[in-house]
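Regression test case RT-17, inverse folding.

Input:
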């Protein structure tokens, strides 16, 4: 077991980070995730850094830093819950997946509000039975 600042190059050497196939960063502190990922990628640019963060903008920042895999939990958690709700309402899985895929399309464009225009007469634009 090691105790220390994992953003320190000396600690990275003590942990033999250079021999790792990947580093998975797990903490709720986004600033720590960003700091650690940035430092890891600075000293080990080919390292596969993987993590999960709450928001898309955080995921975007980490991907720009060079992280290999970053999951934004808010949209994915929401989509998972939505899939469960639709399933409980009797919607068949082959009808649910196109909905999930459309929400993920173009890097979550409809969730981000980018290019998400729904015509006023679109019957799918219904909330709680009201237009």
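Golden output:
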């Amino acid at each position: 077991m090691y105790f220390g600042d994992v953003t320190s190059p000396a600690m990275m050497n003590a942990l033999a980070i250079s021999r790792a196939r990947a580093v998975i960063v797990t903490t709720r502190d986004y600033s720590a995730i960003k700091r650690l990922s940035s430092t890891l990628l600075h000293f080990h640019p080919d390292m596969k850094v993987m993590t999960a963060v709450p928001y898309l903008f955080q995921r975007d920042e980490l991907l720009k830093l060079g992280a290999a895999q970053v999951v934004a939990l808010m949209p994915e958690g929401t989509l998972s819950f939505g899939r469960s709700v639709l399933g409980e309402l009797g919607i068949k899985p082959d009808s649910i997946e196109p909905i999930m895929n459309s929400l993920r399309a173009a890097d979550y464009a409809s969730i981000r509000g980018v290019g998400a225009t729904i015509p006023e007469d679109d019957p799918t634009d219904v909330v709680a039975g009201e237009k």
